[in-house]
């Protein structure tokens, strides 16, 4: 649009094709196109923020509508889904989700300087996790010194998850525990099936 639109000018906006023909310097057109892309990106980011805020508001409404028992069940379920089943950086001030296993069990967080063991998730400091991986007590006897397959990695994670879920569920009140088991029945069945496969070596 004209820079005086709409206070003084009511003309329709300029089309990019017309501007390309009339702007004297190619760099001017590139600058204009870059500015339009920047504006579109800002609008997209704003829409995403609005969408995220809407989801937060809906979650708050749902929490407020729940009674105390319902809130306990929801919070316990979220803890299992987000803090146990999802592998994360072990540092409490980071907790970035981890997805990118590349064969070596000496892992690095993509968000902070933490190096950690892929077998036991021990924080090995900022320098190197290879020593911990080589002598980790959670490593199966037939595993390589540092490397393993994606299957080894998933099996180890599932075994660890099953133990942590059991410990966490045991800490809940009986009614809450039963409700959480019901809400997560599918995930818990899959976890049990995967750890059975791990034990049998299928």
Q: Can you walk me through this structure?
A:
58% of the residues lie in helices and 3% in strands. The chain has 202 residues and is mostly helical. It folds into 2 domains: 13-65; 66-200, no CATH class. Helix 3 crosses helix 6 (174-183) and helix 5 (150-170) crosses helix 7 (185-200). The longest helix has 40 residues, at 26-65. The chain is flat and about 75 Å long.
How would you sum up this structure in a few lines?
This protein has about 200 residues and is mainly α. It has helices at about 15-20, 25-65, 70-85, 130-135, 150-170, 175-185, 185-200, and strands at about 105-110, 115. The chain has seven helices and two strands, in the order H-H-H-E-E-H-H-H-H.
Q: Could you state the oligomeric state of the chains shown? A: single chain
Supply the number of structural domains.
2
Query: Proportion of β residues?
Result: under 5%
Mean pLDDT, all residues: 82
- Helical proportion, percent range: 55-70%
Task: Write down the secondary-structure element order.
Answer: HHHEEHHHH
Low-confidence stretches: 198-202
Strands of the widest sheet, in order across it, are 1-2
Rg on CA atoms, Å = 26 Å
Which secondary-structure class do the elements indicate? mainly alpha
Shape: flat
